[in-house]
Amino acid sequence: MTDDDGTSVRVICGSFWGKTGPVEGVAADPRYLDVWVPPGKRKSLPVETSGHAFAYVFAGGGTFRDASEPGVSARSRWDPW
Length: 81
Hints:
The chain is mainly β and 81 residues long. The protein has one helix at residues 74-77; strands spanning 8-13, 15-16, 19-20, 32-36. It is built from one helix and four strands. It has a two-stranded antiparallel sheet with strand order 1-4. Strands 2-3 form a two-stranded antiparallel ribbon. Strand 2 and strand 3 form a beta hairpin.
């Protein structure tokens, strides 16, 4: 799906913008999206207050309002080897 500003979204799992992704039957009811925002554009995608979100930026950069700073998971900090 492509929005008026050129942002494209592929729904992998769950529903977004009235579309449902091909992956179904996941117990936790997740929403996985593949989002591309054109260079120089801003996009706001809502997250329910009862939900959690993370972003993996493959290219370029972004800022995320009301987000915690990127960090290292507890597991990767503890390495017994």
